Amino acid sequence: MYLHGTSRINEQGNLEIGGCDTVELVKQFGTPLYIYDESLIESKCRQFQDAFKETGLRYQVAYASKAFACIEQYRLIDREGLCLDVVSGGELYTAIQAGFPAERIHFHGNNKTAEEIEMALDAKIGCFVVDNFYELALLQELAEERDVMVDILLRVTPGVEAHTHEYVMTGQEDSKFGFDIQSKQANTAIEISLQSPNLTLLGIHSHIGSQIFEPVGFVHAISILMTFLNEVRKELNFTARILNVGGGFGIRYTEEDEPISIFEQIDSISSIIRRECKEKKYPLPEIWIEPGRSIVGEAGTTLYTIGATKNIPSIRKYVSVDGGMTDNIRPALYGSKYEAMIANHVESKETEVVSIAGKCCETGDMLIWDCELPLVQKGDILAVSCTGAYGYSMANNYNRLRRPAVVFVKNGEARVVVQRESYEDLIRNDVVYVENSSIK
Fold first, then answer.
1. What is the pTM of this model?
2. Where are the alpha helices (DSSP H) in 205-341?
3. What is the pLDDT of residue 288?
4. What is the pLDDT of residues 366-416, one digit of tens each?
5. Which of 41, 266, 318, 437 has the most CB atoms at less than 10 Å from its CB?
6. What is the number of helices (H) and of strands (E) in the chain?
7. Are residue 24 and residue 43 in the same domain, yes or no?
8. Does a structural domain hold residue 433?
9. Residue 95 is part of a domain; what is its CATH number?
10. What residues are designated binding site for pyridoxal 5'-phosphate?
């Protein structure tokens, strides 16, 4: 398993993260357990900002919190000076409870409810990324009721398909997201926005996909976006102050993945924007991006305890852990691949090839197929790397399993930022009916 961030093998032969021995972490907090390398998250935040500073462009980096959200994570993002991208009332509420500055919050989503929009308006967030005509009208109506002006971006689809798994492609024409450029929906949306008395149109937003390794997709999309903006400037006398090119920067999950550096990605994006603006004599807009996975993905490691094994001669050995698709649904949902190691005896010489099975009552609950590990024993601790994005945030209670705890580690100290769910938590919202009355 590749060692990311502060991860290392200590003198005891155990995996250590953030100066904390993972064996001791398991003794203290149990398994399954999400571990986050706080220093690595901070480093990623600073790399994006430093990369932009080298370009000389005006910019904003907004953390895409759908990758991983909790109060302490939002506080970390605030300390690093990033903005925040939320996509639901729940993420917005968490941000408010974390004390995140509302003016640095951007609200996304393809079906924001009136309740969610009202919460955001009352909080005075910095910007709405409007996704469709329904939302455009609803936002104008609710802003007018409150007699407030609202800053917006329009999400547009440039017709570019990123080279990634089809379920996480979001920039092509056939997408549930955004106003289509090809059919002129985006032109109409800009015209309506400019005529809406309570909306201030700042620019446009585009997101072409996720886990993108090369800048080619961004370059092509930006060329289309700048051509569109140049046409709109001539037709509607609108000049965008902001161009948001989204996120989707890839990370290394396994040796098959070869992402380029953050600095290379930002340099490529800034270079094509400068070139396009120069060719079209278009004023350089402020550039916004929305990294999520690339900030937290590699910082997360999930620890499990190994239990049952099943050896099918000449076919496969299954090794079961005390978690699975309830704490990491990506392998079942996307076919995602991960690396792993035995955290309590990393450097054993004898190895075997096994497949890691989750404990859910589903044949498809498999975390890793055909993984080479030291000889596995009951009670060993399995560490799966790069689970920081879309692990906890997509966790669920299938089979009434409890969501794991989340622990941040840094400089030899560990702190719980999300408590492990209890069995009482599982039935907290159940309603029991007794003699024609309800007891909650």
1. 0.95
2. 216-236, 262-280, 293-296, 330-334
3. 98
4. 999 999 999 999 999 999 999 999 999 999 999 999 999 999 999 999 999
5. 266
6. 12, 23
7. no
8. no
9. 3.20.20.10
10. 248, 290-293, 390
